[in-house]
Structures are given as structure tokens and as C-alpha cells.
Design a protein that fits this description.
heterodimer, A: mainly beta, seven-stranded mixed sheet, 59% strand, B: mainly beta, three-stranded antiparallel sheet, globular
Amino acid sequence: QVQLQESGPGLVKASETLSLTCSVSGASFNFYYWTWVRQPPGKGLQWIGHINYSGRTNYSPSLKSQVIISIDTSKNQFSLKLTSVTAADTAVYYCVRSSHDFVSGRYSYIMDVWGRGTTVAVSS
Amino acid sequence: SSELTQPPSVSVSPGQTAIITCSGDKLGDQYVSWYQRRPGQSPLLVIYQDTKRPSGIPERFSGSNSGNTATLTISGTQALDEADYYCQAWDTNTYVVFGGGTTLTVL
């Protein structure tokens, strides 16, 4: 059974760097994308970015200047760093296993296994 | 499909059919996934590639996608289906885009 678990500080000071790690069990890193999604209070889901097993990344254009996602397959972990945080970065952060394919002429992106989520608050 | 629009809320009586729409420019050109988020829980994939159900998702959940609109249909809606539902698609400019979410209320 595939399980993902987020870990990291629940409180970060404004202008500092938010760092989270996702520990993966029961799954190979190959063939999947490893994704971060967040949900600010009272708002919808927001895709942050993803990384594949070889370290190839894509980031949301709206967050690209702040985000670094990295992977350590030897530890079965991938990580998120979000720099220069503000109150707008307060959210529940989820790590997710994703599949991305081109099937029958159309792109498919499927987020099939989610971590429980971790709440991060940014304090001034 | 860089922006996906969902109705903020949908209400349905138990046993009836709930229909949640997701609209975006040429949305039918990409596959759509749907996620259910119950309060206090992580999102759960309920439909992928427009019409497919993951293992363990009840048959009462179905989906379609054509033109500019994707639809999630819940037949015989139950109280436990009360949740927020999000559509999601791939966009060549913004990569992954979510709809704003629809709160389903089972009255």
C-alpha cells in the first residue's frame, strides 16, 4: 500500500523559507511524478509543482520564483522549499503521487495518492 | 483550459442525482480528473481520464467531458457524498489547473 507523509515546521516567519519533506513508502519513484499541492484557508486547491525520478521539475508559473522541489530516491523522499513566504502562503500542504501521460491525443494528469496534509502558518 | 469554472454550490436531496459542471476553453481537448474533499480529510480521486473510476469508488460516480464542459454525476446521492468537489486538467501554459471547487450539500 502506497503511503505519503508530510513533515516539517507548522509555523514559519514571514520572509523566511518554508521547508517540507514527503516520505514515501510502498511505491517506486520510477514512472511517477511527485507533486505538491496546497489549500489556503477558505480557498481551493492550488498545484505548486512536481518532480520526476530523474529530477525534472515543473512549477506553477505563479509560484515559480519562490519554489524549489527536490528528490532523494535513496531516502524515498522528496521535498518542497518555498522562499520569502508571506501570509498568503499559509495553507495545508499536501504531497501527492501523480501520473502524467499523453493518451489518445490528449494529456492526462492524475493525482491518485495523497498524503494527510500538514498545516503551515506564516507569522509576521 | 487555463481557467476552470465550477458552480460554488450544488444541493440535492438524498437519492437524487447531483450534477457538477466544470467549464474551460476547449476543455474536451484534455483529460479531466475529479477529486472529492470531505472536511478534515485529504482529497480523494473519484474520476480520472474523464470517465474512469479508481478501484473502490462506487459506480454511482460517473463523468463526461466534451467541448468546453466536463461533468461529474453522482446518481442516488447519499449523505456521505456531501463534500467539496474539484475538477482538474492539464494546461500547456500553467501545467496543472484546478477548478474553484463545488460544495455539494445533501439536504
